[in-house]
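We close this part of the discussion by returning to an individual protein. Part of our work consisted of pairing the sequence of a single chain with a tokenised description of its backbone. No coordinates are needed to read the tokens, only the vocabulary itself. The amino acid sequence and the backbone structure tokens for this protein are reproduced below:
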Amino acid sequence: MTDSQASRPPRLPRRDVHGVLLLDKPLGLSSNDALVRAKRLLRANKAGHTGTLDPLATGLLPLCFGEATKFSQDLLEADKTYEAEVRLGATTTTGDAEGDVVVERPVTCNRAALDAAVARFTGDIEQVPPMYSALKKDGKPLYEYARAGQTVERAVRRVTIHELTVLDVDLANQRFMMRVTCSKGTYIRTLAEDIGEVLGCGAHLTGLRRTAVGDLTLDGAVTLEQIDAQTDDERPGMLAPVDALLQRCVRVDLDTVAAGRFVQGQRIARRDLPEGQVQEEGVLARVYGEGKLLGVARMKEGALRPERLVKL
């Protein structure tokens, strides 16, 4: 053993931690690298992210730990909200500021023309995924084809823009800011490019910040530096509880007997539920016993049937 090895403090073992970390991801860090760092700081046994955020984007990256990973897929399906800065007058190879400028054109639009162009992209729209994306073609990510100078055919995708608001306009410097709330699978780079084409001047993304994923927002989000500044014992307290992912589900509180049956995977008849709770067929509920989350269940054929159980 070398002197340097002997002087290192012993590595602490991993531990079970459960909950959701609302991480404010920094610029330039991949989602996976952010997950690895957070998992190391928390010494977590099990962790997963809820969909990637580009390295050139900042903002909300919910990370799930322990039992919360059972619900990470729900956030993959959730709507997202972004604030984006767009530069008019130039298109790039990647659709953002990382790429090389391909074409520059004069910007002759006014604010009214910009508002009219943006309005065309609210609702259900079609997008062609960018070549610089992680979508796969024949088992290989599109960005690998793009880096090799190849362009391959991509299927048109239908996505939904729930809200699109122009926040700030500086046409003298060929820039504007927008807020976008959209369905999963929406490419904000492509949206910026398409708006630029409608205006006849081209455009690309110069900044992107995610502010919400489903019901989760940047309120209470922390940075990796803030986690690092806490003691080892304090860090698990920075996690939101597992049921932070389930707030849209109706709540059901079972008595001791019913809760015991539920955690064994047994269905709970409607007559054994608290009065007035979960009466509609198909309703998804978050289920508690003695105030502790037991899992989620769906009302089907007159009974509450467990779908995912948690062990906290």
In short: The helical segments are 3-7, 31-42, 72-76, 111-119, 142-147, 188-199, 224-229, 256-262. The longest helix spans residues 31-42.
